[in-house]
Amino acid sequence: MNGWKMSVNHKRLLPVLLLLLLVACGDDSSSQNFVEPVSKVCGDRTIDRANPPSNYIVLGNSLLLGNGGFGLAASEISKDYFSRIDSAFRSLNPDCIGRRVMAKHTENALSNDELYASISENISPSLSDSNDLVIIQLGDNIDTGEEVTRMKKTVGAIMDTVCVKAPNAKVVWVGEWYSNSRKQKILREVTEDYGVQLIDISDLNVRENQAKVGDIIQYPDVRTQSISYEEYRVYGEDTLFVAFKEDDKLYQTVIFILDHFDNPKSKQLNFVGELGIITDSFAATHPNDQGFELIADRILDGLGFK
Questions:
Q1: pTM for the whole thing?
Q2: Which of 31, 157, 214, 230 is the most buried (most CB within 10 A)?
Q3: Same domain, yes or no, for 221 and 291?
Q4: Secondary structure tally for the chain: helices H, strands E
Q5: Residue 83 in contact with residue 90, Cβ under 8 Å?
Q6: Torsion angle of the four alpha carbons 171, 177, 181, 183, in this order, in degrees rounded to the nearest 10
Q7: Total domain count for the chain?
């Protein structure tokens, strides 16, 4: 009989072929694209006082861009951590170019597809081989159980992207203002896997370094803010007194304005000007000017600029 017979080698290959077929037919196609953390994949470029950056990127969240252009709860743009480190870099290299990039959306991704889409949209386009320093200030908004469970994948995917897209850059991770021991442990493990420096700021989030409800913000441009008020008065044409409640506590603030519009029925006041008021209790847990200064000092010290 001349029928086909399976050789020993074919028999050995069969389980492997079946396994490959099962992987190819899996339901979560995005998982096939996920790259697990690989040890020491990031560059080891020296950035310090003697070697200041010339083209750097900061990937961050509300601490970087929560005020629509600068760090949330900083009293003005020059007081947040980015402006402070940028000033230090430029004092040593006047031609230094720095850029803020909002990347908070990657923190909350609950699937590989969502994660990679966010990275592709918010992180990848900002990176290039001309970057000599990338500062990653992310992780604060990873706060639900599922997000924390996925944190190693999230951090690893961000690292992979940064290290591949900016191969000539020194990479540091700054974290976290909103932290806990589990998140810090994950950050330490993954940054160590990649040979990336972790600059720990978790101890800086104490009450004296936080903003307060009622604090006044100086914007670099004219903006409109809406506030639910208990009462308000306008003195002359430009001085606003407003009383408002947050968490059942009454606050009173006086600021200069350019214009205002009142809806007495809903007790909603819109005012226009270059000043704003922190009216949200969570926003007030962000760094105040002192907190931002300490974060900047921690980053500069970690990079060897102090």
A1: 0.86
A2: 157
A3: no
A4: 8, 11
A5: no
A6: -50
A7: 2
